[in-house]
Amino acid sequence: MFHLSPQTFANKTAHYASLVEQARHLITGEPNLIANAANFSALVFHSLPQLNWAGFYLYDGTELVVGPFQGKPACIRIPLGTGVCGTAAHTRQTQVVQDVNQFAGHIPCDAASQSEIVVPLVRADGTLLGVWDVDSPVAGRFDAEDRIGMEALCQVFMAHLA
Length: 162
Ligand code: SME
What we know:
The chain is of the alpha+beta class and about 160 residues long. The chain has a single domain, classed as Beta-Lactamase. Helix content is about 35%, strand content about 25%.
């Protein structure tokens, strides 16, 4: 196991600011949720280092169901309150997990995943759309800047819901 060195990803804040603008351009004017979710996943997955999965789980009224993503095939359904995704959905708090092996109830979809960040996606009316989930094969990959950056990206995504 190895850890992310600061040199690996210099000026993370500026990088996220650029990604936020790219995300805005990608989805502005397009009302289709699946199209926007697919492009959003591809943008993030291919623009940040040391990721092995990035995508959406969408709430169907009962549980989370996998949506557009980049990475290996993943578990399809996650009950609210279960795993990192279900915990983010249930608590409506972003989950930053430095070591998934230490997270009680973590659901291992890709054995390569070592750390994870999950942002809850809540509509303006307070209802749950789902979660945005990003995994890394590197322990401790996500820090406070990643949390701020991912939440800013998700705000853009949610602001453009039809
Ligand atoms: N690890 C997640 C499940 C989804 S995959 O990471 C794609 C969890 O514990 O909720």
